[in-house]
Design brief:
Blueprint: E1 2-5, H1 6-22, H2 26-38, H3 42-61, E2 71-79, E3 82-85, H4 90-102, E4 131-137, E5 142-149
Parallel strand pairs: 1-3, 2-4
Antiparallel strand pairs: 2-5
Helix pairs in contact: 1-4, 2-3
């Protein structure tokens, strides 16, 4: 039986969210660098260069890659032989890690979650609740996949021609 301390789980969520806020995955940076080297169009090459410079500045300064640091989605694969030393549920621990990451004084992340998106549109001010999916797996390990997805990619537009 594996026993995981509640605070260790919360710290892992916090650390992961801070990390993904300022580091692009290495394979992404390598692919972008290769694209930059191959690109022949000056405007496109300049756009790629700006992304690479931004990525480097964010990594060095530990600042968010994008101003829209998103809504947290967490997939927890919980081994059947795992217990937690603490009194919080998995959802509560994920939310506490999220709260700490988004309210961190050293690298505050933009809080964009609403209490009730249909109602008065009041911000929770700590980016909780996170969207948490839990599944059980055989074994004595916990696997966490966490993402912070901004909403800009979901914006819809419409073109209307007026005469």
């Amino acid at each position: 039986m594996t026993v995981i301390k509640q605070q260790d789980f919360i710290d892992s969520i916090y650390d992961a969210l801070q990390y993904i806020s300022y580091y692009h995955p290495v394979d992404f940076v390598r692919a972008l660098r290769k694209a930059y080297e191959r690109e022949q169009n000056p405007a496109a090459k300049n756009a790629i260069a700006q992304i690479l410079v931004n990525s480097k500045m964010c990594a060095i300064g530990h600042r968010p890659l994008c101003q829209d640091t998103g809504i947290v989605t967490c997939f927890v694969r919980l081994g059947m032989n795992v217990t937690f030393d603490g009194d919080m549920t998995i959802e509560e621990m994920v939310n506490e890690g999220t709260r700490r990451a988004y309210c961190c004084a050293d690298n505050p992340l933009r809080k964009s979650v609403l209490v009730d998106p249909i109602g008065a549109r009041v911000n929770t001010k700590d980016n909780t609740p996170a969207i948490t999916h839990i599944s059980t797996i055989p074994g004595d390990k916990v696997e966490i996949l966490i993402a912070s997805k901004g909403g800009g990619s979901e914006n819809k537009s419409k073109l209307v021609m007026l005469n």
